[in-house]
Amino acid sequence: KIPYYTLLINNMFISAAFKQAIFYSLMLQDWITFNEIKVERKDLLRFYIACAYVFFYSENLEKAMFYTAEIANNLVCEAEDDIFRYEYHYLSALICIYWDEKISEIHRHISKCIELALKLDDKQKIIKAKLLEYMYACHGWRVNKIYTNKPIKLDLEFIKELEKEKYLNNLSYIYTQNIENEVAFLQKVESGK
Predict the structure, then answer these.
(1) By the 8 A CB rule, do 46 and 3 touch?
(2) Residues 137 and 171 sit within 8 Å (Cβ to Cβ)
(3) Relative orientation angle of helices 41-57 and 2-14, to the nearest 10 degrees
(4) Rounded Cα–Cα distance for residues 93 and 61 (Å)
(5) How many C-beta neighbours within 10 Å does residue 73 have?
(6) C-alpha to C-alpha distance for 67 and 49, rounded to whole angstroms
(7) Eight-state DSSP code of residue 145
(8) Residue 121 — left, alpha, or beta (φ > 0 → left; ψ -120 to 50 → alpha)?
(9) DSSP annotation string for 90-107
(10) pTM for the full model?
């Protein structure tokens, strides 16, 4: 049953049916917890990953962090868990970017995410992992702050890769928010001085 409901939750997430996805996530979590259901570990990890994404994109960062902790608690030291470890660090980095209280943990998650993406040799995961650095520098693409956390030098090969793979929305944020911005200047512009 868990794989079936995980698929439903993923489908709801993809179609932006967040309220329904949250309902099924919580219902299934309660069912697993209170009935002490034995669930295959990998099915449980897939379920927790789906839930973490649902709650992250529903802007419930605390609940998303709960599910990433559940992912971490169920990882073992097997090479086949690298995909789950990647998802754990990717989700944790995303949450840290948007949850200012967790910012101290971000560099560890981004580094580990990039390392795992390279190890998995998955082109899309490598791009997503490297994008985390730019997302962090640009406050997670939040437009309420036009200056960056820290200017970062643009990797032109990576920029070309983003263009080739049609990450155009991300590129627009990188170009407008982070082209080696002078933070003091942009802070003055933002304040109207």
Answers:
(1) yes
(2) no
(3) 20
(4) 12
(5) 9
(6) 7
(7) -
(8) left
(9) HHHHHHHHH-GGGGGGHH
(10) 0.83
Residue with tokens 């439903």: 8
Going residue by residue through the chain, which has 193 residues, state the pLDDT in tens, using 9 for 90 and above: 788 888 988 889 888 888 999 999 999 999 888 887 788 999 999 999 999 999 999 999 999 999 999 999 998 877 778 999 999 999 999 999 888 766 778 889 999 999 999 999 999 999 999 999 888 887 777 665 545 556 667 788 998 999 999 999 888 887 777 554 555 545 554 565 5
Torsion, CA 143, CA 147, CA 153, CA 155, rounded to 10: 10
Place of tokens 């789906």: 50
- Nearest CA to 56 among 30, 31, 92? 92
State the Cα–Cα distance between residues 101 and 132, nearest whole angstrom. 17
CA angle 4, 48, 83 (to 5 degrees): 95
Closest CA to 85 of 119, 35, 51: 119
Number of C-beta neighbours around residue 53 at 10 A: 22
